[in-house]
Design a protein that fits this description.
Largest sheet: 7 strands, mixed
Shape: globular
Mean pLDDT: 84
Distance between the termini: 54 Å
Structural class: alpha/beta
Helix content: 25-40%
Strand content: 25-35%
Length: 474
């Protein structure tokens, strides 16, 4: 913190005319950071960084002293009105004239090494390890005495390092700068995204920061925008279940639902279904929150509740765009459910997800959302229920090796059940028969439950009984 002693003002009343001459200076601050913090770097040498800061935001200097350590930070003071004019002229209205090296939404090279910002190197190292080990999430949690870094690998959290408590604020600030968030806000929840480059590939991290009694908790969810979408065969469905799923994809209308808890791979399954159907003769629209994978040939729309761009509002308007197939990321309320059913009745094939424990429970869930039984019977085509379980590591056969991180598991597969509707089951749904009666009928028809599919995967050595029990299947 020695920089705080030397972060002295070198000028005050800095004129906007003089200030504007620095509009072309390459800087490391994002546009959003400049706007939120009213601060911009105007010059940098080997030992010193000079910034211009609005008079009302001089507290930003303390943060910048940490970010640029061990360099000395000096600042010039700018009137708030003149800084606002600067933003209007050079940051917002003429963005192309104010070129920042690391603009929010652009890619940060994780392989770059900073000689003057330890926090940059620490965050880069954490992200590179997560990518190398195939993690889906990074958890950076501040406690009273330390900072824990955990990776979620194949659905299970693992602590990979423990850092000194004193570095947390600097790490949090670095992540906020990279994701275009308000660096000075520590009391409210913030969500953003940051683009990075690693190994010549572009990757996205979705960033979520929430306050806690011990400080802040940070979660980064990794999306590889260059990864190919998995096919249905890659997901682990049995031949029997694939035989039920594929024919229904040719239906001209109706609803196909994927069910399961959060993190069970429902969206990945829907993407695989879309990829299976994708063709130049179909207009396919996907309404998602967030858009995790970019799929060629499909119109994908990002939901934004803050501006009223909800599943329900987008779906209502998309129906006017002559779609053939519509994917709705989640049916979470009565309005969305009713619109989805209406669309399915009027010649559209609807794909969506529900949070239910098994496939048959989707009928009850739709009833609870206010859908009449006769409408459920008339529109529902197939329900896929699934869980993601870790696969036994082939090289070590579950005993643990360096290749799987000594866990005995490597990669994940889906344990699933597929509920396909026939005329008899539709009649039972229309008469509001209980779930137990529906299940009894299905079992008599040879329906394979989630537990049975899991047991087959254990028997064949694909996974283990312990893994199925951990997921609550067996």
């Amino acid at each position: 913190m020695k920089n705080l002693k030397t972060a002295k003002p070198i000028s005050s009343g800095f004129s906007i005319i003089e200030f504007s001459q620095y509009k072309n200076v390459e800087c490391q601050y994002t546009r959003q950071f400049i706007k939120n913090s009213r601060c911009v770097k105007i010059r940098e040498s080997e030992n010193e960084v000079t910034v211009a800061v609005a008079k009302s935001r001089l507290d930003t200097i303390k943060l910048l002293a940490q970010v640029h350590e061990p360099k000395q930070v000096s600042h010039v003071t700018v009137k708030d009105s003149e800084f606002a004019e600067f933003i209007g002229n050079f940051v917002d209205n003429k963005a192309e004239e104010f070129s920042c090296r690391k603009e929010a939404g652009s890619e940060y090279r994780l392989e770059d090494i900073s000689g003057d910002a330890p926090a940059v190197n620490t965050i880069n190292a954490i992200c590179l390890e997560a990518i190398r080990r195939g993690a889906s999430d990074i958890h950076i949690q501040g406690t009273k005495s330390s900072v824990k870094v955990r990776l979620r690998i194949d659905g299970v959290l693992q602590t990979v390092r423990t850092l000194d408590k004193g570095i947390f604020d600097t790490l949090a600030s670095r992540i906020k700068i990279m994701s275009g968030l308000n660096v000075m806000e520590n009391r409210l929840c913030q969500d953003g995204r940051m683009g990075v480059q690693a190994g010549g590939k572009n990757l996205d991290f979705r960033v979520s920061i929430v306050p806690s009694v011990a400080g802040q908790n940070i979660v980064l969810r990794l999306f590889n925008s260059e990864n190919e979408d998995l096919s249905l065969e890659d997901l682990g469905f049995s031949k029997e279940n694939l035989g039920k799923i594929k024919p229904v994809l040719k239906s001209p209308h109706g609803m196909i639902l994927a069910t399961g808890p959060t993190g069970s791979g429902k969206t990945t399954t829907l993407h695989a279904l879309l990829k299976e159907m994708n063709g130049e003769h179909l207009k396919i629209v996907a309404i998602e929150d967030p858009v995790e994978k970019i799929i060629d040939g499909i119109e994908q729309i990002q939901v934004n509740d803050e501006i009223g761009l909800t599943f329900e509002s987008v779906l209502r308007r998309i129906l006017r765009h002559d779609p053939d197939v519509i994917m709705v990321g989640e049916i979470r309320d009565r309005e969305t459910a009713q619109l989805a059913v209406r669309a399915a009745l009027t010649g559209h094939l609807i794909l969506s997800t529900l949070h239910t424990n098994d496939s048959v429970s989707a009928v009850s869930r739709l009833r609870n959302l206010g859908i009449e039984p006769y409408l459920i019977a008339g529109t529902l085509r197939t329900v896929i229920a699934q869980r993601l379980v870790r696969k036994t590591c082939v090289p070590c056969k579950g005993k643990g090796c360096e290749e799987c991180g000594f866990t005995g598991y490597r990669g994940r597969t889906a344990a699933s059940e597929v509920f396909s509707l026939d005329e008899d089951i539709r009649a039972m749904i229309e008469k509001s028969k209980a779930e137990t009666e529906l299940k009894k009928y299905l079992v008599k028809q040879g329906f394979k439950t989630l537990k049975e599919d899991a047991a087959l995967k254990v028997k064949s050595g694909i996974s283990t009984k312990e893994e199925m029990m951990r997921e609550g299947i067996l």
